[in-house]
Amino acid sequence: RKEVEQDPGPFNVPEGATVAFNCTYSNSASQSFFWYRQDCRKEPKLLMSVYSSGNEDGRFTAQLNRASQYISLLIRDSKLSDSATYLCVVNIPTGGFKTIFGAGTRLFVKA
Amino acid sequence: SQTIHQWPATLVQPVGSPLSLECTVEGTSNPNLYWYRQAAGRGLQLLFYSVGIGQISSEVPQNLSASRPQDRQFILSSKKLLLSDSGFYLCAWTPRKGHYEQYFGPGTRLTVT
Question: What pLDDT, on a 0 to 100 scale, did the predictor assign at position A44?
């Protein structure tokens, strides 16, 4: 089983739609969680951290479910500019820590 | 504010040639530094990370090496490139303590022919 798993997609949604991505992780000791966005042929950029209580940043909402070991990202009112690959990231304590990136979920938002 | 630079942006090299990619970080000190490779359509593969000058940890055995000659400089090298070395090479940094999110440079797209 992979340490971090994401549905690769692609997700094809119309503008204005709500779309949700899930990401599962295998190590119950995982401590910190993030969502990154990667545009085609560009570097990944931090979208948001994921807090235990859940957090929201504008149209984006991140949730953490420790019992089921998954995190989610909800995008409301999708824009064309949201088209990208979304990477789930998990940090595992190892003395220091080890960062695991998911392979990403591709999103296409169409007019 | 902190910035991270990588160069060159693109590179086309023949098989068997050497490689040197450079990454520098500005506006911070004692960062953790990372080299990743992303093959076309694939996820990120951690190659090396460094917690300080001269301290390099390798994640995947291969014909690449890394060095950190200065606090904010991280270099990825190869003596002889293979076709399989083609990919998108990304440098990232994170503060040493208290923060675990990584910030990426713009990357170097390497094609080995």
Answer: 97
